[in-house]
Task: inverse folding
């Protein structure tokens, strides 16, 4: 019978933003017998990770290619276990949830992938769906939870509106922060031909998993936390940088799934107008309150 010792967790990190809480969490995984592979970029030294407090039981690998996806892909070749979890370095996910995720995954048929529900802590364009957002961002009056909109934006998973007959639900895309799959289902090709921040990587990864016949399941029983900054909170330079890279990568994804460009452009127009209208409103209120 497969146990938690048949599991490897792969974490790609540049070590810049990881805090002691997450280091302790990763060390605890290793204490429970889970194989941990930490993949760092080639410009760092392995000793850097251990000096930060990572356990010696953790295997640290230097990837020749920089970038979250490239580092993760490099680490996969060292995995020996039947099950693999890929996890971002800023995920809050206790050992009890790891055990539950593994037990639920083993109940699924072969050629499956399972992820916990993403609990968004801050507002973003993926939260607080309203009428205008439905029309302009998702191009629908009634967007379906967990699907991909005609604009090529993901419609958030809404587990509150799904019948609670099962602990899992088949969906069209999975959040990339943490997911589990079998070793033989790992995508070994370089499916993300971009450097820098991995915008839309979860959508592109989900696309190739489905293309390979893997069914995507979302757990309705467990969730993970990660901070998502609203684009409305960015300064102008930060917003323009986000839009530039997000547009480029999402357009690549749009072409992969053969969506039309007009809904795609409409969605970005909505985001830009939303950003500037929010800034104008905030500046007006600040001026008024002086």
Result:
């Amino acid at each position: 019978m497969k146990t938690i010792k048949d599991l490897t967790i792969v974490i790609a990190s540049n070590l810049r933003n990881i805090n002691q809480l997450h280091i302790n969490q990763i060390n605890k995984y290793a204490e429970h017998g889970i194989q941990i592979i930490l993949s760092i970029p080639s410009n760092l030294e392995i000793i850097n990770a251990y000096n930060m407090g990572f356990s010696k039981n953790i295997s640290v690998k230097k990837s020749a290619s920089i970038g979250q996806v490239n580092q993760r892909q490099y680490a996969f070749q060292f995995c020996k276990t039947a099950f693999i979890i890929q996890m971002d370095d800023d995920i809050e996910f206790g050992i009890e949830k790891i055990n539950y995720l593994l037990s639920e995954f083993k109940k699924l048929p072969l050629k499956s992938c399972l992820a916990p529900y993403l609990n968004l802590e801050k507002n973003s364009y993926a939260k607080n769906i309203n009428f205008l957002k439905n029309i302009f961002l998702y191009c629908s009056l009634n967007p379906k939870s967990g699907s991909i909109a005609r604009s090529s934006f993901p419609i958030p998973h809404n587990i509150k509106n799904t019948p609670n007959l099962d602990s899992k639900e088949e969906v069209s895309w999975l959040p990339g922060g943490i997911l589990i799959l079998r070793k033989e289902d790992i995508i070994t090709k370089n499916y993300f031909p971009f450097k820098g921040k991995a915008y839309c990587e979860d959508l592109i990864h989900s696309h190739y998993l489905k293309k390979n016949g893997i069914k995507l399941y979302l757990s309705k029983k467990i969730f993970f936390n990660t901070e998502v900054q609203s684009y409305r909170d960015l300064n102008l330079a930060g917003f323009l940088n986000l839009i530039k890279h997000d547009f480029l990568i999402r357009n690549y994804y749009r072409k992969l799934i053969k969506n039309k460009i007009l809904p795609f452009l409409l969605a970005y127009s909505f985001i830009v107008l939303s950003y500037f209208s929010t800034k104008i409103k905030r500046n007006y209120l600040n001026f008024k309150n002086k």
